[in-house]
Amino acid sequence: MFHLLKDDDLTPEQMTRVLRVAADDAPAERALAGRSVLLVFLERSTRTRVSLEVAVSGMGGSPVLLDNLRSRLADGETLADTGRVMAQYVDLAFIRAYQQDVDAFAEGFGKITVSAGSDLWHPTQILADLLTLQQEFGDLRGLPVSYVGDGNDICNSVMLGCCALGLRVRVATPPDHRPAGFAIERARRACERSGGELELFTDPVKAVAGTKAVYTDVWRSMVPDDEHERTERFAEFGAYQVDEKLFGHAAPDAVFMHCLPARRDEEVTSSLLDSPRSVVLRQARNRLLVNRALLRLLPDFARGD
Ligand code: CP
Ligand code: NVA
Questions:
Q1: Is the CB of residue 115 less than 8 Å from the CB of residue 137?
Q2: Distance in Å from the first CA to the final CA of the chain
C-alpha cells in the first residue's frame, strides 16, 4: 500500500510534481466533494492540524478529527484495531504520533496514510520548506543549505527530503545529538541517486558557511514544554543558537528557516526570527499549499500514476 510516512516514500519525480502543483495552487473547490479525510492527532499540533482542516474543507471535503482523549484509544483500543475500523469510513488518513503508533495505524488502516509528523520524520513540512526554497532561489539542485541544532525529526526530514532533490545539505549538531544513523544512511543513499551531498559537523560555523538557508528547530521535541529545563538546554545547545553572528557566515542572500513553533531566544534569537531574512511565515503558509497538492495527487500516486 502507498503511504507517505517518510520523505523518500515519494520518488524525486513525485516530490517535484507536488511542488509544481503546490506552486500553481489552482482552484479545486469541489475536488474532495462528498469525501471525508481522517486527521488523527495523538500529539499536539497547531499548523499541521489547522492547515489540513482548512485544505480539506476548502476542497469541498470533510475533515474528521480523531484524538486520544475523547476516542476509545483512551480506553486502550489499539491503533491497528482503530485503523481497521476507520478504513470502513474513509480512504485517506493523516496521523501525528510517535513513529511506532504511525506504523501500527497504517498497517491496520491499509489505505493511504500520511505522516503529519512523528518523532522521526515530518515529510509534509519539508515539502513546504522545499517549496519555500524554490520560491526564493529557483532551481533546487546543488543548492547549499544548513541545519543547526538537535538531530531530531525535522533534521532527519531536512536531510532526506533535501538530499532526494539533489541539494547540498550541511548539518551541525552537538556530538551527543547527532541525527540517527539510519536517517543519515537513508539520506546518503538518496544523495547517490540525486547527486546531492550530505556533510555532518559539530562546528556550526563550518556548517553554515556560504549556505543559502540556515534552518533550525527546537532543542527538545515531542515533550511537554518545561521552562525549568532551560538552563540544561543551554548547557547542551547554547553554542548552536542561530543568532545574527552565526547567520552572518551564510551567503549574503541567505534565508532563515524554522518549522515553528520556535522558542524565542533559545534555538534562534527573537530578532533573527522576526528579521526580513526570516521566511518562517512563508514556510507555514506553504504547508497549506502542499496539503492541497497532496490531497489532489496522493490518489494518483497510490494508483501508480
Ligand atoms: N511545524 C509544525 O508541524 O507545527 P505544528 O506542530 O504546530 O503542527
Ligand atoms: N521537532 C519538533 C517539530 C515540531 C513541528 C517536534 O517534534 O516537536
A1: no
A2: 14
Comparing CA positions, the residue from 99, 70, 90 lying closest to residue 157 is: 99
Total domain count for the chain? 2
Which stretches of the chain are assigned E, i.e. beta strand? Answer: 3-4, 36-41, 62-67, 92-96, 112-115, 144-148, 168-172, 197-201, 213-216, 255-258
DSSP 113: E
- Widest Cα–Cα separation across the chain: 55
- Residues recorded for the chain: 305
Q: What distances in angstroms separate CA 269 from CA 80, 134, 201, 282, 292, one per listed residue? A: 42, 25, 22, 18, 32
Whether residues 129 and 277 fall in one domain: yes
User: What's the pTM?
Assistant: 0.98
**Mapping DSSP to helix (H, G, I), strand (E, B) and coil, where does residue 215 land?**
strand
| Mutate-to-test residue for ligand 2 from 119, 154, 216, highest number of ligand atoms within 8 A of CB | 154
The secondary structure of residue 31, as a DSSP letter, is T
Ligand 2, atom 7, residue with closest C-alpha = 221
Asked if 41 and 94 sit in the same domain, the reply is: yes
Ligand nearest to the CA of 158: 2
**Ligand 1 in reach of 47 Cβ (< 6 A):** yes
Residue 95 shares a structural domain with residue 129: no
Q: Are residues 91 and 133 in the same domain?
A: no
Residue pLDDT, tens place only, 177-200: 999 999 999 999 999 999 999 999
pLDDT per residue over 54-113, tens digit each?
999 999 999 999 999 999 999 999 999 999 999 999 999 999 999 999 999 999 999 999
Mark whether 8 is an active-site residue: no
* H helix intervals, 65-143: 79-86, 99-109, 123-137
DSSP code, position 110: -
Residue 116 Cα to ligand 1 midpoint, Å, equals 9
Strand pairing partners for 63? 37
Please say if 193 is a catalytic residue: no
